[in-house]
Hints:
The chain has helices spanning 14-22, 57-65, 76-84, 97-108, 148-163, 175-179, 187-198, 212-218, and strands spanning 2-5, 26-28, 38-42, 44-47, 54-55, 69-72, 112-119, 122-132, 135-143, 167-171, 183-186, 222-223. It is α+β, with helices and mostly antiparallel strands. It has a single domain, classed as Aminopeptidase (3-Layer(aba) Sandwich), CATH 3.40.630. Strands 6-7-8-9-10-4-11 form a 7-stranded mixed β-sheet, with helices on both faces. Strands 1-3-2 form a 3-stranded antiparallel β-sheet. It has a two-stranded parallel ribbon with strand order 5-12.
Amino acid sequence: MTSRSDPFSLELSADLIIRAYQAGIFPMSESKDDPDVFWVCPETRGVIPLDGFKTSRSLRKLLRNHTYSIRVDTDFATVVEGCANYGTGRENTWISDTIRTLYGELFERKICHTVEVWEEDTLVGGLYGLSLGGAFFGESMFHRRANTSKIALAHLVARLRIGGYRLLDTQFISDHLKTLGAIEIPRAVYEKQLSEALLADADFYRSEGGGISDVCLQATSHIS
């Protein structure tokens, strides 16, 4: 069961969103054009244990041999546009213009991050989420080529492991995320993990010194 509530009487802002995530709550909108958000605090939370990320053998081979380039934090607007329009025939999205604006502000403050998969000059997959302490809150991902969202997620997991993160929050889980190692945990367990992760000294950019490709493959050592 998911509870929807409005626990904050303050004006909606990027700082309020940070406070919400620190409390285990996140915002969504009913539609693209809805200026309002509702606050969500699921009874069970989706997470991917950073030592439990899984891939198929074919994806592991792709991670070794693909020719895409992986970039971070270079094109927030296009990543969010891809996430909002992911899937054929999609008529609606919870990523509203309000959310784009506020998360864009968080991106400028280096709290929101993107992982991007590029084919030459074309963005073909990626994801975005928020980083607070040692917790990363995955918001959405998309692909325009087969498995490019999985490549982005594998890169994210490796980056978080190098960076000293403790928690990768997926909010909800799907059958797709289950195949990659996502599990559901009760709210009380999540809140304990969150409080510990928020105190961790993590660094999203620690991997810039090199070695992420090797860790990316190590992070996929659990073959499904």
